[in-house]
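Justification of resources, computational component.

The compute hours requested in this renewal are based largely on the per-chain cost of generating structure records like the one below. Each record pairs the submitted sequence with a full structure-token output. That output is archived, and it is also reused by downstream analysis tasks.
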Amino acid sequence: MSYLKKIYLENFRNYKQAQVIFSPKVNLLLGENGQGKSNILESIYFLSLLRSFRTNRIRHLQSWRSQQMLLRAHIEHDEKQEDILGIEYLKDKRKLRLNGDNVTRASQFIQQILGICFVPEDIELIKGSASERRRFLNITLSQFDPVYLQISHQYELALQSRNKLLRKENLSASVLAAFDQQLIEYGIQIFQVRYHFLKTYCPQLEDVVRHLYPENNQLQLKYIPSGLDLHDENIDNGQSLAQQFKEQLQQDFERDCKRGITHSGPHRDEMAISLNGKLLQYFGSEGQCRLAAIALKIAKTNLIEQYTTPQTTVLLVDDVIGELDLRSRNAFFDFIQNKGQIFIAATEIDSIPESLQPKIFHIRNGEISQG
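The structure output for this chain reads:
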């Protein structure tokens, strides 16, 4: 089994320098709020996906007044093989390394650790805007398929170029047509990948709900693509979908020009999440939304275990069970305890089931001690 054996942090959040050797199973980070527990989880997630679950600004991750940040992870596959990941930021310049060699593509880097976080911010998956749900979908698909990350990047470049062109007074029809063609080419691939993935994902979600929720509760996820009518009969007909997307762009042309943005495409997709027929975004309580977000993440974890080759899967759990009732809390721990490597941040050891048998680390003022 592969697992995250060790991390080294330098000038990351409140850690000037820190090195931690982990258990291959359950690791419990104990400490009061504000001491640095979540920062350890965040560093692991950043090593996994080159992004934080708390901020989009790299500068916020660096220690105060520091110009350099370094993260390093040692992944043990067996007693004879170990991979070393490295991320270094010098001011705003990033360097990625795998076993000492430079890595130029993010897609090559993020496949090394499959990080799945359960954090307070997850509630925005349910209560937040459609962009939060698209972000969840994009991150999940990038972990399954590195090609998806490249397609998404190309689509985003075409979208930005098209929007800039729409804002110009003298709009070139031939240049717009070229960007439209790129938008259609990459957009159709994104639509197709999302559609097929969610056809597999939704049954997994239903299975999780049966165990996590009381009886007679249904958590439903509906994919609402922007600008296309997708169904089983046409989803693999790229030519038909391309024509449909092209006609939608033409239909939106005047509105796009007026506002300087592209109104249709996968960048405007939505996933509607309902509990017993009611949209949770508008009608769900705090506890219902929290539990729904947890269900989405557990279903993702189950899929990753089934459909990816053996890799380093780590679950990062930070303060998400406080609002759950006892039944849901026990079900959550039953789900995760047989997964890959687990990291839990908590203020009290009593909140963690004894059956997990964690390796315990005490966190205080950015200092880590074991025992």
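Residues 1-112+311-371 form a domain with the Rossmann fold fold (CATH 3.40.50.300). The chain has a mean pLDDT of 93.
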